[in-house]
Amino acid sequence: MKDVVLNKLRKTYNKGGLLAVDDVSLEVEQGSIFGLIGPDGAGKSSIFRMLTTLLLPDGGSASVHGFDMVRDYKKIRNSVGYMPGRFSLYQDLSVEENLKFFATVFGTTITANYDLIREIYVQIEPFKKRRAGQLSGGMKQKLALCCALIHRPSVLFLDEPTTGVDAVSRKEFWEMLKRLKTQGITIMVSTPYMDEAGLCERIALMQAGKVMSINTPDQIIQQYPSPLYAIKASRMSKLLQELRTMREIAHCYAFGEYLHLVFTNDNQVTQQHLLVLLRQKGHEDLELLPVTPTIEDCFIELMTAGTEPSGLTLKPLP
Amino acid sequence: MKDVVISTDKLTKQFGEFVAVDAISFEVYQGEIFGFLGANGAGKTTAMRMLCGLSKPSSGTAMVAGFDVSRHPEQVKKHIGYMSQKFSLYEDLSIQENIRFFGGIYGLKDKEIRQKSKDLIEQLGLGQELGKMVGSLPLGWKQKLAFSVAVIHEPKIVFLDEPTGGVDPITRRQFWDLIYAASDRGITVFVSTHYMDEAEYCNRISMMVDGTIKALDAPAQLKRTYGARSMDEVFFELARNASRKAD
Questions:
Q1: Strand B59-64's sheet: what is its strand order?
Q2: Under an 8 Å CB criterion, which residues of A touch B?
Q3: Can you give the pTM of this predicted structure?
């Protein structure tokens, strides 16, 4: 069963001046984790606000858990949990009061669904008398998740839950999501961190309101159009600048300790030729090896498809 | 011998009973790109605020750009640039107005401001957009502009607090081009980030855990020391035993 269905969903702001969501269509399977991956301005939050019935679309349609987003908006509100990007609980209520409030609003009690949140809630329970506004970022995030879950929603919408969160806490958060999934909850989550894409069953790569690609992370990686290489040398900054100006290189950009590059014309000869050229230019400790693209490579490729390779560079300082 | 532009000696900040920054001592060299990493709640922001002259140390000392942060915080502020993740330009001023405003604040003469605006607009390719309100620019442009404004007075050091959060992968790399260019001009870049691939772009990295600096070295050396394949693993190794799970 499809728990979330978007059909050419469209949203504009400023009387049509800004197209925030550009005819987005996608489907989310019940009990799965679906990721909206993209930077700020991709349209992720607007999609969440429409699906949670807080905003009306300008075109297209969508349904959540079988309910139409416009006609059945009240039913949707009862069956979804939503954690907005910005902390939106009551700052001057305590941890416990916030949770009780949300349970009551949805006509349930903390005890009725305690098993669902227990694992998360025990981590903040020692601070249950503390006001939400006084909590640290990590604890606020956990409380917000508990409040979004307390009525046992069918679908959980999480808008950038890990933004600004360190790598260790991010990993823990994704562990929590995986466990929630086993309870049959459908999860739609957005993130600007490309490395989190692999933790979703399906993802949509989004940029400026458009979906560039929808698939499983593995499939998206398999669709990468050309062989990708990693290269490094003792002087990385110089290496990057020189590779960018070479005819033999279609794309080159920094990627962690290596640079990633795509040849204009890929064959064994070109690879050897490049190494010879670079040695002549005085580069030392050269290392060139084929690598499997990551989601971030795919994202960059999709963004630059059809544009000049120079789209990746800035003009040098005068 | 490299010039030292930041040096701290047992720098400490205490809020009541809580020791946010616990006697950290380290040095940063001129022109270096220095990555300041750590888990949430490790004390990074507090340490950075002290180094920028915004918060007075409880004990210990820090010299930044040749000035003592406790005794001459105003001098420190004049000789550094600062950019936060939260966008720091005026949204309802145009690009040109922001450049003029910050140039003036940092004490540049009108002629210098004119020249700097020209260079900066040329470099960022903003020629067509000069009169546009900054609020209407895409985030990536804003962040590049904010960085250029933060170094408009050619400070000795620029502090960047998670400058690339939420920015697309291409703009993120263009942002690092700007960082490299500044570093080539001799500006020291002190940067915090949650992107582990960006940690690799730094000359050296410090890792804060529970208010102390647990490790400080070049990325390649850190990976050797901890037998890790990636900076992600190094970070995980160091941060997972943190006692401050709060944040």
A1: B18-29, B4-15, B59-64, B67-68
A2: 38-41, 123, 136-139, 160, 163-169, 171, 192-194, 207, 237, 253-257, 296, 299-300, 303-304, 311-318
A3: 0.87
